[in-house]
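Troubleshooting entry. The earlier prediction with adenosine monophosphate gave an output that would not parse, so I re-checked the input for stray whitespace and re-submitted. Clean input:
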Amino acid sequence: MSDCLFCKIIAGEIPSNRVYEDDLVFAFRDIAPQAPTHILVVPKAHLDSCNAVTADNSQVVAHIFEVIPAIAKAEGLEGGYRVVSNCGADAGQTVQHLHFHILGGKPLALEMA
Ligand code: AMP
Ligand code: ZN
């Protein structure tokens, strides 16, 4: 995806504050943090959103959910954290590359909408 912001970040064409990387996954700090710790975890292979997850590619999502606790531990989020993926316009998705927000570092408000 040549015109995708997160694909460019993964490729190193746009700088980011990387916190984790492996063959399948890239994680970096959100540029506009909504909590003391705010990290985005994305698959390296472009998927538009949760709606693009299928039986053929869901392994990367399972892997992301193995990586997330490791990142949370490394970030010292012993008190807990929230994982969010916005899917589509009504959820406020602004970057059309599947990503999971890790939010933590303080007690978070409970409002979901
Ligand atoms: P969403 O609104 O769920 O699509 O989340 C997109 C997130 O990407 C927002 O929290 C933005 O602050 C974040 N973001 C946008 N551009 C960058 C960037 N260049 N580096 C890091 N995070 C970014
Ligand atoms: Zn992309």
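This one parsed fine. The helical segments are 5-10, 58-74.
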